[in-house]
């Protein structure tokens, strides 16, 4: 059985989530209280309903109980976002993902039962800043507040050296988990493995240590 998704709030973020899921051929129920927003979405996703998500009866009538994942993408109206999250959790949706405006909003969402809180602007801002600091950074995944994984293209200073010579663990306190090259993935790199042109290092570490590492090879 394919997963069933619903997206509540069709602003820029919610619309993009709904459209991408539809592009993956998933059935998506998109809900917004605004008529124009629902009309725009109707060309893109399977089911679109104009409804106020703070109206519990309306959500129950839509059968939201049967959905695997509900994304609450109401940004500006924090009260509506919190109420909607409470209702959707009470209805019994197993996974509720909610977009938060700020840290305090995020804390409240966690308290009322959101399974995952996301901060799209904050996270995108971090990504862009990492790319600006080092053009070698390909991706950046936050593991917790303090730890992340970065994918970094091998800098010219790394090429032809092995991991022992680069001494990343001792110098920066970070760990090279894997080395990718095209489709090839070395998930247990040895100290003697040479870094080649086109390699991508997958490095895990504390954010502060990763920053030192990124800047050193920028
Ligand atoms: P973004 O920053 O992603 O564009 P917005 O906060 O501008 O997000 O958009 C949120 C969307 O959520 C809007 O389309 C708005 O009509 C919708 N929305 C706000 N409150 C409700 C509600 N109570 N029920 C349903 N949709 C809502």
Automatic annotation (TrEMBL):
<protein>
    <submittedName>
        <fullName>Ktr system potassium uptake protein A</fullName>
    </submittedName>
</protein>
<feature type="domain" description="RCK C-terminal">
    <location>
        <begin position="135"/>
        <end position="218"/>
    </location>
</feature>
<dbReference type="InterPro" id="IPR006037">
    <property type="entry name" value="RCK_C"/>
</dbReference>
<dbReference type="Pfam" id="PF02080">
    <property type="entry name" value="TrkA_C"/>
</dbReference>
<dbReference type="Pfam" id="PF02254">
    <property type="entry name" value="TrkA_N"/>
</dbReference>
<dbReference type="InterPro" id="IPR050721">
    <property type="entry name" value="Trk_Ktr_HKT_K-transport"/>
</dbReference>
<feature type="domain" description="RCK N-terminal">
    <location>
        <begin position="2"/>
        <end position="118"/>
    </location>
</feature>
<dbReference type="InterPro" id="IPR003148">
    <property type="entry name" value="RCK_N"/>
</dbReference>
